[in-house]
Every structure is written in C-alpha cells, then in structure tokens.
Specification:
By secondary structure, the chain is an alpha/beta fold. The chain has 9 helices and 15 strands.
Length: 332
C-alpha cells in the first residue's frame, strides 16, 4: 500500500525517544513534517531526526495538503483543542493518552471525527504488543474462566517541577498520566464498562497534582472488580494480574515493554504455572502500522474513539470520588 503521510504536532521528548525510530522504519507510514510553536526548534528537530519539513506553528502543519494524518503528543490539556483543529483541517488523528481532560471534551472530539468521516484514536500502544494479544487470546479461550479481578500497579519517581507530569495546569498527575492505563486494561479484560468507581487520592503539597492514587472499579452484573494504585513519586513498578475463576494471567512489564527483547506473561491454572514469551516487538511501530492500514483502507480505527470516551468517563468518576469520598456512578 502507499505509505500514509504523517505529521507530528510537537517536538516532544516522548516522540523522539520512543516513537520516531519505529515509525521511520515502517513501509506503511512516512513522516513528512514536524511542528513546534518555535520555528528554530522545529528546524533543529527536523534536521536531527531526518524529517523533510519543519513548521514554525501547529497551524502551518495542519494547513499542509500533503499531510494526511497527525500524531499528537502534546500536553494533556491541549489534546482536545488540537485534535479538533486537526480533524477540522481534514487530518486523521492519533492522539496520545489521555484522549482529553474529561469525557465531555472526548465526546466532542469523537463527534467531530464522525462528522468529518476521519479516524480518531487514543494511542494506547500496549494493546498492540504480542504479550497482550496472547493474554487476550488466553482469556477469550476460557482457560482462566470468567474474570473476577484485575489488579494493576504502575509507578515512577519524578520530582521535576518543570515536567508537564507535575504541572496541574497541563493535566499532570498520576491518574491522567498512568491511571488511564489501569482503567483501559480493566475495561478491556472485563469486557464491559464499570458501573461505579471510588478513589483515594493523595496530592503533592507543592505541585497540586495527585502523586499517589488508588481506585476500585465495580463492573456490576459481570461480577468483576478492578483495583489499581498509580504513583509519580514512588519506586518504578509495573504489573498487571487478571484473575479468573480457574486461573490467572500476570504481566511483569505490561506497558513500557522493551522493543528488542521478548516480554513474558505467566499463566497459572490448576495444572501449574507456565511462562510464555512474546516478541520481541515494537508496540509503537505495530500501532502506527495498524492505524496507517486502517486509514489507507478506509476501515474503522483499531481502537474506536468511543473507547477513549468511555475511558475518560471512568477518570471523571474517580476525580468526583476524590471530592465526595464516596462511590460515583460512571454513567451519568
């Protein structure tokens, strides 16, 4: 197929560190341009990364008719604004998580994508890694039985006051940055939406962002529950365990998987525990290949934008619970 022509809206460190190399290797995608609100910075980034075009504003990139799709790794508080502007400019959008700052913004973004008949997807790259694909196959086979609980721990230690993850005005904090992963995994493996949620949130006395947050999601009639703790000032840990009526699946590096070595998942049943290796694989490359294929074929996004709206609805409920100290309904 002809490569989809991508533009990058921001010269983010995340893009340069994790996304650029796998994206540049794809036959399905071509990186046409990169934009910054600082023209010299855009030119320097383009030269360093070998990107043909540099744009001194986001508007200039969106106005380029040669760009078909936009990858948006801007700070969280800018996602809704610039994803919507990209859609209005006729570009498909792959937006970094979380999709927006709340479900109302996410719904408006999804409506804009539908009205323009364009693809909008939240960039949960982990869903494309073979360790997760294998875990989902095992779950769907019935080997571990009906899901009863999903437990997630995700933490890092970042005390930099200038980092966007520690700035409340840019949508920083543990729930927005990594709690969204715990919610996404729980919804995906429960196979339904939670009915209510409750949270326990600790806020940084200097930054104002949540630096230690826990949540419980109640999936109602399905009988499943999810628990998680996420932290931004804690020893780095990642782990997810899905427990069913007849077994469990545990992933030791579920989200920031190394691209050049196999990842492992442990499957435990009455017969014992076996370790399954999956990969190596670059989950960012797999995501961009899948999205580019969907764009070129005119098919649905690999993960529909409505999934991002539903994830934001759970985040909204958890933030309401922080204030109320009680369970909050996820819908309405």
């Amino acid at each position: 197929m002809e490569a989809v022509k991508w533009g990058v809206l921001s010269i983010s460190g995340h893009y340069a560190l994790r996304v650029h190399l796998p994206l540049s290797r794809l036959s399905e995608a071509s990186i046409v341009g990169i934009a910054s609100r600082d023209a010299p910075k855009a030119s320097a980034a383009a030269a360093r990364l070998g990107i043909p075009k540099a744009f001194g504003s986001y508007e200039a990139l969106l106005a380029d008719p040669g760009i078909e799709a936009v990858y948006l790794p801007l700070p969280n508080n800018l996602h809704a604004e610039w994803a919507t502007k990209a859609l209005e400019a006729g570009k498909h959008v792959l937006c970094e998580k979380p999709l927006a700052m709340d479900a109302a913004q996410a719904k408006a973004m999804a409506a804009a994508a539908r009205s323009k008949k364009l693809l909008l997807m939240e960039a949960f790259m982990y869903r494309f890694h073979p360790q997760w694909r294998r875990a989902k196959e095992i779950l769907d086979s019935g080997e571990i039985g009906r899901v009863r609980s999903i437990a997630c721990s995700f933490s890092y230690n970042n005390a930099d006051p200038a980092n966007i993850r520690n700035r409340i005005e840019t949508g920083g904090g543990a729930l927005y940055d990594i709690g969204c992963y715990a919610i996404s995994v729980s919804r995906w493996f429960a196979g339904t939406e939670p009915e209510r949620a409750i949270s326990l949130v600790q806020r940084d006395p200097v930054f104002g962002t949540d630096n230690l947050s826990s949540g419980v999601l109640d999936f109602g009639p399905s009988g499943a529950r999810a628990t998680f703790t996420v932290a931004t000032k804690c020893f780095p840990v990642q782990r997810v365990e899905i427990t069913g009526e007849r077994g469990s699946i545990a992933l030791g590096l579920p989200f920031n998987a190394y691209p050049d070595v196999p990842m492992s998942l442990d499957v435990s049943t009455a017969l014992g525990t076996r370790r399954i290796d999956a990969g190596p694989a670059d989950q960012y490359g797999l995501m961009f290949a899948a999205v580019s294929g969907a764009i070129r074929e005119g098919s649905l996004a690999p993960t529909p934008c409505e999934d991002g709206v539903a994830n934001m609805a759970v985040l909204d409920a958890l933030f309401r619970s922080e204030l109320s100290g009680s369970w909050e309904n996820v819908k309405g």
